[in-house]
Structures are given as structure tokens and as C-alpha cells.
Amino acid sequence: MAATIVVGTQWGDEGKGKFTDLIAKEMTMVVRYQGGHNAGHTLVVDGESFALQLVPSGVLYDHIVPVIGNGVVVDPVVLLAEMDKLTAKGVDCSRLRVSGNAHVIFPYHQELDRLIERHLGKNKLGTTKRGIGPTYADKAARVGIRLQDMLDPKIFREKLTNVIAEKNLILAKVYNRLGFDADEMADRYLDEVVPRLRPHIADAVSLVHESLERGEHVLFEGAQATFLDIDHGTYPFVTSSNP
Predict the structure, then answer these.
(1) Is the dihedral angle over the CA atoms 31, 33, 37, 39 positive or is it negative?
(2) pTM (whole model) above 0.85
(3) Fewer CB in 10 Å around end: N or C, the chain?
(4) How many C-beta atoms surround the C-beta of residue 9 within 10 A?
(5) What residues contact 11, with CB distance under 8 A and at least 6 apart?
(6) Would you please indicate which residues are annotated as catalytic (active-site) residues?
(7) What's the CA angle centered on 103, arms 98 and 105, to 5 degrees?
(8) How far apart are CA 102 and CA 217, in angstroms?
């Protein structure tokens, strides 16, 4: 049983991506375990540049299974766009696995992220406005929607309808903004996102444990860094997860 963990000790600009890429070729599995698409790095391979935000850097090696774990919040639209860019450059993304327990970033998370930052004014936190914080907030409040929920249209529509009803009240009463149409959003994700993501959704915990039990080498690829940890960092100027 062997695992290697790459963790930043400052704010995330320590060169983790380069180090991860350097040792990834020796691994069997590379796992992203927290963060969202605010944390990215660029790799240059044979003179070609690869910008990665959600997909673990192990995807560039044919022998590696890249895994996005349950601690990551996933914008499936961003993930699919990133996979398309990699595929266009000849990278095989078929091995990518995404935890069914990973929470989903929706457009209402992004809208709330922008509005909250604007409302804070000079006290704003400086978020990326990509909906990551509000998604983690929904996860903690137990009203979040996970990737596996999207595999059952009835459950997905029910959960999305309930949460959008609440978000629309906040948008209207607090920020004087128009809300979202739950049916329209559900249709779009069920038609455009789910069919493409379904083959990649898996039980990531079992995948990792089975790999470790076989004695394979697993790399856990951290995003951000210690000083951005929500518990151990320079709060409140931190991320919303535990790097």
C-alpha cells in the first residue's frame, strides 16, 4: 500500500503542478481530492501547453487512471469543455473517473457568488466568482446536489426544483434579481450533460482503496495550499475546502 500526497505549504503557487507532473509517471492513479476549477495549473509537454483545472494531471499518461474525488465540487459544463480541449490535442480522457458523491456547481451558485462579492464591497473576499464557495455552503447545509443525483431524472428534478425555489427567493428578495427556471435547467443538464458524463461517474472511494490494496502507487494531487485551508488558513481569506 503506497500513497503520495502533494500539498502546498503556502497559498498555492509553490509549483505543485510541475512536481505532480514530474512524479505522476510513476503512479497508477492520480486523484484530485478537494477544490474546484479555481485551482488549475499549466503543463508543457514536448512544447505543447495543457491547461488543467479539474482533470488530474495524470490524464496525460496512458497508464494512469485520473480520478476526481468526492471532496471536489464539479462544474460539469467546465469539465466537459476541458475534456473536449484535451481530446482535441490527442489526450485520451476515457479513463477519467469522477466520484458520484462530488457536488455539482450550478449557474445559481455562480450568480450568488458574484452578487455576494459585489454586496461585500471593499470587504469582498476576492473569490473567482465561479460558484465554488456557494456550492460548498450548500453541501454543508445538506441541500446540495451530487453528480449521482443527476443519473435519476426524477430525483434530480425534485431536488433541483426545491433548491431553486429557495435560491430564487434569495435572488429576488435580497438582491432584486431574476431567478432560474428549474425545469429548463433540468432539461438542459439531462439532455446535454448526463449522457456524456455517465460513463465517467464511479465510486471513487472503492477505486482508490482497491488500487492501494493491490499495492499500486496512488498520487493525491492537492489544490490551493495550507494557508488557504478553511480551518487552518488565513481565515476568512481562504478557500471553502480543506487543502
Answers:
(1) negative
(2) yes
(3) N
(4) 11
(5) 224, 225, 227, 228
(6) 13, 41
(7) 105
(8) 23
